[in-house]
Amino acid sequence: MPQGLVPQRTAPRSDAVRDDAFSRMLYERHGTVLFSFAVQLCGGDQHRAEDVVQETAVRAWQHQGILDPANDRVRTWLFTVAHRIVIDHHRARQARPKEIGDEESDEPSVPDPADRVVTLRAVLEAMTELTEQQREVLIYTYYAGYSVDQTAAMLGVAPGTVKSRAHYAMRALRASLRAQAVMD
């Protein structure tokens, strides 16, 4: 029988006292090192590591007849059990269907086409409330994709005028869309 896994020969005591002494000695001698090992196995997740240590301690307690917590060789047994527990948990998560909120999907979510139609309609309606100059600036800069300088050249105005009209047009659009409850 490997060292560290020898039956304990102690004076007969009540089971509760023996169980308490076993658990205390196990945690005192191996708890900190086992927890550090479990944190590494769990990728830094301390809460999962605590669960792994606790489950490892329960299994050690179940085998206290063959384990001697005073012997440092029992640490190898504890590490092996902790490693197997982490592997079992990982396999269990892989085997069950993915639950809502487990992890975000790598695929981008597809917006509802109906929302786009409603928003487009609301924007077009709000654009009718703008002045002709503001509407022109927004069409050139936002919809056609022209730069401020290109828009200024097309409209025959200064770039500063284009910026000013775009600013006030966007402000008016936001106010109109908020009033229509399209924007927050």
Automatic annotation (TrEMBL):
| Record's keyword terms, sorted | DNA-binding, Sigma factor, Transcription, Transcription regulation
CDD domains assigned to the protein according to its UniProt record, in alphabetical order: Sigma70_r4 (cd06171)
Location of the RNA polymerase sigma factor 70 region 4 type domain: 121-173
Residue ranges annotated for the RNA polymerase sigma-70 region domain, each copy included: 26-94
* InterPro entries per the UniProt record, alphabetical: RNA_pol_sigma-70-like, RNA_pol_sigma-70_dom, RNA_pol_sigma70_r2, RNA_pol_sigma70_r4_t2, RNA_pol_sigma_r2, RNA_pol_sigma_r3/r4-like, WH-like_DNA-bd_sf
- Region Disordered: list its residue ranges: 92-113
Q: Which PANTHER family does this chain map to? A: ECF RNA POLYMERASE SIGMA FACTOR SIGL, RNA POLYMERASE ECF-TYPE SIGMA FACTO
- What family is this protein classified in? Belongs to the sigma-70 factor family. ECF subfamily.
Name it: Sigma-70 family RNA polymerase sigma factor
Organism listed in the record: Actinoallomurus acaciae
